[in-house]
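Please fill in the sequence for the structure shown.

STRUCTURE ENCODING:
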């Protein structure tokens, strides 16, 4: 079968030099695994980290891709709940399932966890015509949700759901700030907050503001402006008059990091929460601790989530309450172009997909 393979790293981000469509062996399921034909796969930033060989040197030769959706074509003898013909999507958080964290329902805190398609291999990921996963690492796709939508949702919907519902524990009526609303996680963050009947302020670059509003954001602010936080503050003051409460943000949803960190802290109400899943602009954020201890601020880290949380998000997709924002679709042969677009982010809104020929 065909797969997008690289045999060396590209620290200079020259993807065309290393990414090749090659033949690899068809997978055969282990006793607890399912094998499925890939109909759609989605890109994530960890695919770029893998090709750079840092911060984690991934196994070579390597097949990337942590999000895949498709049709089951074989199952191992110990598989209980998945059968041939089922439509499934990957749950890429591979944990040990037996440690204290896992048995406490915190598989995302497992010290032995790895991300499928990023840390697995050689040649085991989403960017191949047929792939395989343990039964516990696939979820059934609900009726009404396409392969494309499921692949686009797999990691980012899970991450956003865990951030807002699992970690921040949002409640109806809160004012929620979604940083980077044009990203994969941001686009889902907007919709999840609206599902919980929150007032949503999204930030994005100027060309993405209208799309954030289309996804359900009540307000959209250009976070490239130096004084973007002042505009957000003004919005919260108007909302506060209607709610008869103090102005400010109840929950700030962050994955931008360094450049916008302190200004988010200034916007939070007393006892409010900032939940972070990443730092695309840098990790060395300066923190004004007065906004932490004096206001009783909750700063929460968040990564991945549980399979149950993925299934909760997929349920609401099946109900039509959450939609996947898909930017563009590429073939395996266009893998270098697809990853370059993700790296630059120019004009990007939502997820980038790749598909094998004929999918």
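FILLED IN BY: designer on duty
SEQUENCE:
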């Amino acid at each position: 079968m065909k797969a997008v393979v690289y045999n060396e790293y590209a620290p200079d981000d020259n993807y065309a030099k290393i990414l090749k469509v090659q033949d690899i062996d068809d997978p055969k399921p282990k006793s607890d695994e399912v094998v499925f034909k890939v109909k759609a796969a989605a890109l994530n930033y960890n695919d770029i980290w893998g090709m750079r060989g840092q911060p984690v040197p991934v196994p070579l030769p390597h097949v990337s891709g942590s999000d895949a959706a498709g049709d089951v074509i074989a199952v191992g003898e110990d598989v209980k709940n998945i059968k041939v013909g089922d439509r499934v999507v990957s749950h890429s958080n591979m944990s040990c399932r037996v440690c204290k964290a896992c048995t406490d329902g915190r598989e995302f805190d497992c010290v032995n966890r790895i991300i499928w398609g990023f840390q697995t291999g050689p040649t085991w990921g989403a960017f191949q015509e047929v792939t395989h996963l343990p039964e516990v690492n696939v979820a059934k796709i609900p009726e009404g949700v396409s392969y494309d939508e499921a692949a686009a949702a797999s990691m980012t919907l899970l991450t956003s759901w865990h951030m807002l519902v699992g970690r921040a524990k949002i409640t109806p009526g809160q004012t929620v700030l979604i940083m980077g609303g044009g990203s994969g996680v941001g686009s889902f963050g907007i919709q999840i907050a609206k599902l919980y009947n929150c007032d949503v302020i999204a930030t994005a670059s100027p060309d993405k503001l209208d799309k954030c509003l289309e996804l359900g954001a009540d307000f959209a602010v250009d976070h490239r402006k130096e004084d973007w936080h002042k505009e957000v503050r003004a919005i919260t003051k108007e909302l506060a008059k209607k709610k008869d409460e103090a102005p400010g943000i109840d929950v700030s949803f962050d994955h931008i990091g360094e450049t916008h960190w302190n200004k988010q802290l200034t916007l939070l109400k007393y006892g409010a929460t900032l939940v972070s899943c990443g730092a695309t602009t840098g990790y060395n954020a300066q923190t004004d601790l007065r906004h932490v201890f004096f206001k009783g601020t909750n700063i929460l880290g968040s990564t991945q989530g549980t399979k149950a949380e993925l299934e909760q998000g997929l349920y609401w997709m099946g109900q039509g309450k959450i939609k996947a924002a898909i930017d563009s679709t590429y073939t395996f042969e266009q893998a270098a172009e697809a990853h370059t677009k993700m790296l630059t982010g120019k004009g990007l809104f939502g997820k980038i997909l790749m598909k094998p020929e004929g999918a």
